[in-house]
# Entry
Amino acid sequence: MKKYGIDQGLPRPDAHAKVTGKARYVNDYHPPKMLIGGIVGSPVASGRIKSIDVSEARRVPGIHAVLTADDLPGPNSMGIIYDDQPVLVKDRVRMVGDRLVLIAGETREAVEEAKRRVKVDIEPLPGLYDVTRALDPDAPVVNGDSNLIREFKVIHGDVESAAHDAEITISGEYHIGGQEHAYLEPQGTLAFPEADGSWTVYVTAQCPFYVRAAVARFLKLPISMVHVVQTVTGGGFGGKEDYPNEPAVCAAALAKVTGRPVKLIYARDYDMQVTTKRHPMVIRHTLHARRDGKVVGVDLEILVDAGAYAGLSTVVAERANISSVGPYEIPNIRVSTKVLYTNNLFGGPYRGFGAPQVAAAHESQMDRLASALGMDPFEVRRINGVSREHPMFASGENLPQAHIYPELLDRLEELSGWKQYRNQPASSGRYREGIGIGTIIYGVNLHSGGQRLDRSAAYIIVQQDGSVNVAVGVTEMGQGALAAMRTMAARALGISEDLIYVTQVDTNQVPDSGPTVASRATVSGGRAILDAVSKLRPRFLEVAADMLGVSPGALDLRDGVFSTSDGSALVSWPEVTAEYYVRRLNPAVVGWFRSPDREYDHDTGQGRAYMFYAFAGHAVRVRVDTETGKVDVLDVTAVHDVGRVISEVGIEGQVHGGVIQGLGWALLEEFRMKEGRMLNAGFTDYLIPTAMDAPADIKMYFIEDPEPQGPFGAKGIGEPSFISVGAAVMNAVYHALGTEVDILPLTPENVWRLMNRSAGNNAAREDEK
Amino acid sequence: MMDISFKVNGKELHVSVTGNESLLDVLRKNGFTSVKRGCSEGECGACGVIVDGVYLKSCLMLAVQAHGREVMTVEALGDVQEPHPIQVAVVEEGAVQCGFCTPSRILASYSLLQNSPNPSDDEVKEALDGNLCRCTGYVKQLSAVKKAAELIGKEGEA
# Structure
């Protein structure tokens, strides 16, 4: 029995194509005369190119193009915000896998053979592999003039005086690991010139409009001449936000030179090595508090390991920066978030966008404070959390949603069985059980720093038979956007969902709608649909009223029937749409959404950071094997402030997926690094959760307190489903072992180190580094 | 190059292959694109097919090894008009998100249910352990297999 949702309960529109294997991903397209693309990447993370010899590679039969930096048919510049990244490296290598040569050939085998025959001579240079050393005077400068790409701050009140007045201070340095997206479909693009001089690009991507801009810029074409089609996309999670620009530009370069379609699909090991990752962060976090549990100040320094190129790291860091205080009203705040170049993996967007790392720190700190004061973790959160009486976020803004956080705590405490499990006598045997929580605040949609992109379109055409085409600018990447759009369009119009057909993003069909990120698809796509419907619906009501001889104001359209309130006059939706066409009226409209303008001071982090906020909380129960350090998850509870559920099946899928991905990050997934090389690039050694790792139970509860700015009251869910999972795992292990936890992932090795350190061997972790 | 022939979904396929081409390569080249390339090292499971009744990963099998054998992909199981009960169950349970891992997981489930019509929860988990999914958290996939077992059981009674 359905508990939640405004949908009709239909299967998602792409389900049948996917279960029958007919859904076409980018690698499933084979236009005539297509060539296969390939990339030769640098084997070292830091060095200077002495020579690249491609003469042998060019002689391989079936090879049509071998391009070095000197042969590129467009500007050799790739950075999305900073101009710090080439398409092909000419001189200085800064990361393992840095592109040196592009190849196009008839077959994959020919391309592989040509790759093997490229001779590269690189003089190794000292690299920077430890982000905490990035600003040392003797640290190698990775890119530009300084390793500091940008610093973000939050300054609120006076943290120095809070420190002075505090009765207790809790400090920790947290080393939080990165994460590979591990979307099952690797990166890929198919690019080709059309006969009329325009270009078509098929791509697996979250942000087709980014791809279009990048390709148009590279080919020096007007934006209108580049047609980007988002193919069925096999997972994104942030990994297909900005990164697809890179394979797209490479494929376009090869297609430009050869005049033929070029498809470039990444092999898994290359994909893992070079594409963007969740940023590893080092977080130095100090809480100043009173003995009654009230936190009076927070002082934070966050080091973000961006890798060798800025990419979108500054944007990620801006969210980390303002999210780092958590869902608490703290009167004195100082945060410094430094985005730093290193020769490590390329940092970028990943579900949560910097928030999970800072949540791991702020939630661990809250539990340490609770422990120091002999309080329950829920109690310190109730004392410090935002509420109707204390609605202030770190940005200084008073949150209209603040009253939801105390409710979330109540629900989480109740549903997780907290009182029972938390008060179990501590076990002393080999296996120790614990329960921990993590709670977060999440700014839905883009940060004010990116508000110029926070817009969205919906193009709706009503056909004569009553069916409806909806094209939106937000993408389906697996999360269920098509289904959500279909539901919202049907509900808003007042007709059945099976009349609505929603297309994947095609840049020729809808205006640039910004990126599909920041849990914004439902909100921004939905608002654009509502805008379109608000313009379309009156036109049809007018025709229906005319047909019935009543006034339009007397009519409503519901469940596909126009009727007066007393039911005396009735006409069906298809009868009206047919008549509408007979009358030759305009059946199409573009709906538009733009988020409200927001003032925000980037020097102090004060102002209106986001359009609105959502809260989330997780409770995780674990059992730790103290002999091996292995952590097993017994159950998980998720409570989400979602405004309104659109689809129950859809939202459950998001929560399940977010939880398991969060558990993977917290327990399994670790970059094994050596001088910038990911030693475990591939699914054989980079372990993500399998069916065997699914916990027996994931309990969930959705608080439905409608958000006035959300369509049908809805907020986003994609990222909140992930963000506080890691923090809850850390606190559960802390509870189980009684040992402070300041590292993620909690692999058996790391848990074992933590246990050893608490046994008096404080040097253990330092030694192991 | 070697000339080989094998059956795919009941139809004979005659192809010339090199000695190092995988079954995955050859299937995809011949239009069986429901078989996905996710890693090429036998870990992700997106390339699963059934060969002579046994579920296996086609990226780890040389095409020449398929000579004379019968290969089944998800295309043979059912289509949009007439889906197989497993496909129905996967759709109804909402066990599809991005869909890239879906065709091979359905084949892994089919193989399981052929051998064990009423599998326990643990059996289902073990059977799907080789099919990575990054979207769904597996929960709905496990319930879909149980539901499929029910649907197939009912079909048998009818």
Summary: Chain B has two domains: 2-75, 85-155. The longest strand of chain B covers residues 2-8. Chain B touches chain A through 54 residues (CB under 8 Å). The helical segments of chain B are 23-29, 85-93, 102-115, 121-128, 139-157.
